[in-house]
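--- STAGE predict ---
source: upstream dedup step, 1 unique chain passed
mode: sequence only
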Amino acid sequence: MNIPWDLQKKRVGSFQQATERRGLARLNSVWCKSFARKASLSLAMICAGITSAAAGPEGLYFTKGVDDDGTEYVGTVSIVRTGETYRILWRLADTVYRGAGLGAAPLNGATKIGPASSDDDVLTVGFTGTTDKSGVAFFVEQSDGSWHGIWTQYGSHNIATETWTPVPPLSVGPGLF
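--- STAGE serialize ---
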């Protein structure tokens, strides 16, 4: 974009004065409206990100835990609402675990169990892995948006722990509009 020489040398008081002098007031108005639309869209995207962070367990998480034999592990967890239930997919190194989940939500001082809801802050999961492991897990949402849980697998006499931390949304940088 070529900038007029007098704007480069700051001979005029403002961008508006320069555009009006050159008969570009309409261009200035169009540019401002376009900028306002883009700024509004950015704000809407930010607000949507905040809303989705508080919309039940659905999303992508980093996971960190301690196995029932004391071994630490890390990976990712994806949770998708599938009608009245949730589908959970863990990826831990070379192993994939799949689970089905049921949610529960607070309601008037009690806990409401039923179909999956954006109010769910408790999740119970049955899971199976690519190995012969299968088990059950119980997770509770924390005030910071993470989920803390315990789990056990068939044949174990111990409880394991796991924490899910939301993966931050991608940043929208300049030039993407």
